[in-house]
Amino acid sequence: MSTWSEAGPRTVEQHAAAVAALLGPTGTETVPLADASGRVLAEDLSAGVALPPFDNSAMDGYAVRAAELAGASESAPVELPVAADLPAGRTDVPALEPGTVARIMTGAPVPEGADAIVPVERTDAGTERVRITAAPEPGAFVRRAGEDTTAGAVLLTAGTVLGAPQIGLAAAVGRPVLPVRRRPHVLVLSTGSELVAPGEPLQPGQIYESNGTMLAVAVREAGATAELLSFVPDDVERFRAVLADRASGTGPDRPDLVLTSGGVSAGAYEVVKDAMTGHGVEFGKVAMQPGGPQGCGRLDLGGTSVAVATLPGNPVSSLVSFEAFVRPALRAAMGHPAPARPVVSARLAGELSSPAGKRQFRRGVLDATTGTVAEVGTAGSHLIAALARADCLIDLPAATTSVADGEPVAVWLLDT
Ligand code: AMP
Ligand code: MG
Q1: 188, 261, 319, best to mutate for ligand 1 pocket (most atoms within 8 Å of CB)
Q2: Which of 23, 50, 63, 284 lies at a CB distance of 3.0 to 4.6 Å from 146, suitable for a disulfide?
């Protein structure tokens, strides 16, 4: 079988599939409702109780027998004794005797025998006796048991992404916890002898390390968990030692994926490439820009192995590659129904040229009201300040060499 580099560059789709194939579906864990936000439901949720669980009042007013009030009006009120007072939460509701009414609050159980609620506004609000000035239809303002859902009905199916309404529903049917798909755990490790931690003084020739922090945040925003390791210089032995120490465990903090940045290009001192070539990780080109040099595979750690995706070091390349390959793979692994970013079509404001044979992701700002997108910065893969102003990626197909002002382009929405 030919290797990736011999076979020529991969397409974005091919490399995305290769990275996704490294991650199996994650298992299930049970979390309290408050921690379920954004998680993917692992099993169908069925209703433990009907909703509403009992017939109850939709209004503050009086529970009545509708037939006893036929003909009641402003000019011909009907007066009846108030036999009971029913606040919400009352559990010992007496049956309604004929010829009486019960004062009732919203959410209180409708007493047996009553078949309608008269809102307090259509009465004199009496507490011993009450004058009623409207004739209710049978069933008026009664919220029927089970009209929202019956007990046992499937309310949410496995694969649903849980947000506030879904978690509220789980609570409403009495669930304190939910089974959700486990988040993949990602170790993030940057490489480069030029890197200095933010906060430290910079020597000439040094730069602040930014990819590690940026990628760890991106991993968490994708819904996975990240452990950011301290970056290592371009030293194969140091790099290998960190991986052997941190990636080969068998405990619960064992990573599902190791994500590296830097050290995968064609130069000398390509520490990631040098340390992993021949140990299960393949390196080659993807026909894209930025983010051409890539690698992925299962790194052999002697008796065990770990999934690895190696991203290039230029900050824009790193994040664009993350968006194209890693984010969708992580989300697919945790069962997310829509692993990819939403893509919309927008009209380009300005013109762009793009290299033939490479799919290009330019950084853009979308104006949703006019449906136009404008580039921020230029194609340079080091322009992190422009990246930070962008809210989308403009996806230019490999065959595209120029786009005219006003032409439609595909746009990946990043800020959702
Ligand atoms: P490399 O892929 O290691 O050849 O790096 C390509 C470019 O990205 C170089 O200009 C590096 O200095 C820069 N770079 C690499 N890693 C990082 C990082 N972790 N943070 C910021 N810049 C980086
Ligand atoms: Mg480097």
Answers
A1: 261
A2: 50
CATH number corresponding to 343-413: 2.40.340.10
CA–CA separation, 101 vs 130, rounded Å? Answer: 8
The ligand minimizing its distance to the Cα of 316 is 1
**Helix, strand, or coil here: 87?**
coil
CATH 3.90.105.10 residue window(s) in the chain: 29-49+160-181
pLDDT in tens, 357-375: 999 999 999 999 999 999 9
CB-based contacts of 243: which residues, under 8 Å, 6+ apart? 189, 258, 275, 299, 301, 306
- Closest residue CA from atom 7 of ligand 1: 314
4-27+182-333 to CATH, choices 3.40.980.10, 3.40.50.150, 3.30.365.10, 3.40.30.10: 3.40.980.10
Percent of the chain with pLDDT over 70: 99
Atom of ligand 1 nearest to the CA of 314: 8
Q: What is the mean pLDDT of residues 89-111?
A: 98
Q: Is the pLDDT of residue 328 over 60?
A: yes
Say whether pLDDT at 215 is over 90.
yes
Q: Which atom of ligand 1 is nearest to the CA of 271?
A: 3
Give the architecture-level CATH label for domain 56-143: Beta Complex (2.170)
From atom 12 of ligand 1, which residue's Cα is the shortest distance away? 194
Q: How far is 40 from 48, CA to CA, in rounded Å?
A: 20
Does residue 272's CB lie within 6 angstroms of at least one atom of ligand 1? no
Residues contacting 389, CB < 8 A, separation 6+ = 363, 365, 376, 377
Q: How far apart are the first and last CA of the chain?
A: 41
In the chain, ranges of CATH 2.40.340.10 domains: 343-413
Q: Is the CB of 315 under 6 A from ligand 1?
A: yes
| pLDDT at residue 1 is higher than 70 | no
Q: Is 328 in the pocket of ligand 1 (CB under 6 A)?
A: no
Distance of CA 161 to the CA centre of its chain: 7
Residue ranges of the chain that CATH labels 2.170.190.11: 56-143
Instruction: Give the closest ligand to the alpha carbon of residue 310.
Output: 1
CATH classification of 29-49+160-181 is 2.40.30.170, yes or no? no
Residue extent(s) of CATH 3.40.980.10 domains in the chain: 4-27+182-333
**295-312: per-residue pLDDT in tens?**
999 999 988 899 999 999
d(CA 340, CA 256): 19
pLDDT per position as a tens digit, 310-326: 999 999 999 999 999 99
